[in-house]
Amino acid sequence: MARLEDYNSTLALQGISDLIIDDVGDIRFTDTDYAYILVVSDSPMRQQLVTWRFRSSTGQIQVMDNSLAFANGIAFSRDGKTLHITESELESYSDIPTRGTGNFYNYPINIQFNGTGARNVCAWNVAWQGHDHTHAVITWKRVIFRTLDGAPEGLKVAANKYLVIGGGRAPGVDITDELGN
Fold first, then answer.
1. Do the Cβ atoms of 16 and 34 come closer than 8 Å?
2. Strand 135-146's sheet: what is its strand order?
3. How far apart (Å, rounded) are the C-alpha atoms in residues 135 and 127?
4. Over 60: is that where the pLDDT of 106 sits?
5. Rounded CA gap, 20 and 112, in Å?
6. Which residue in 46, 85, 55, 94 sits closest to 67, CA to CA?
7. How far apart, in whole angstroms, are the C-alpha atoms of residue 36 and residue 97?
8. Alpha helix segments (H runs only) across 4-124
9. What 3-state DSSP class applies to 27?
């Protein structure tokens, strides 16, 4: 077993939040500072939070997207032509430890809640390029859904193409079609 750091000693990951593996074995993952915020890691954020692509065939790791404030859940559509990532900016780092409203967490954490932060499901078109059609290029980012309560966390695509979105602090899940309706 190899670790991503074995491939690139200068890479400073914050903490993988979610990941997917495509048909060619490449891994895409969202990198967040959540472990530090929850005080389970003593490594503060060292770089911008981004979504990464790790090419298992070459060991190359590259930034796939850096436009989201807090990328979280990640999933491909059933046909692989759309990439979905949740953006969960409802919580962010605070220097002042808190227990949260109503003792939601039962231990001190470094979170401040931001009711105006992004809580979106974003989608990109995926084009498979290269001579062997194994290089995914993402284009046309768009917000397709905004949660009404809580922050979108995990994300899965059901067999019927519906998006099943974990609601974070909200009870239950949001379910939409592939267009966010």
1. no
2. 71-76, 82-88, 119-129, 135-146
3. 8
4. no
5. 29
6. 85
7. 12
8. 4-7, 34-37
9. strand
The two structure tokens encoding residue 62: 């590259």
Decide: 58 and 130 in contact? Cβ < 8 Å.
no
| CA separation for the pair 152, 164 (Å, rounded) | 10
Query: pLDDT tens digits, residue range 48-104?
Result: 678 888 988 888 888 889 898 888 899 999 999 999 999 987 776 667 776 655 555
In DSSP notation, 145-162 reads EE-SSS----EEE-TTS-
DSSP bridge partners of 137? 127
Tally helices (H) and strands (E) across the chain. 2, 13
Binned at pLDDT 50, 70 and 90, residue 8 comes out as: low
Structure tokens at 32: 């967040």
- Write the pLDDT tens digit of every residue in 121-133: 999 999 988 888 7
Backbone angles phi, psi at 48, to 5 degrees: -65, 145
- % of the chain with per-residue pLDDT over 90: 30
Q: Retrieve residue 164's tokens.
A: 């099943």
N residues, the chain = 181
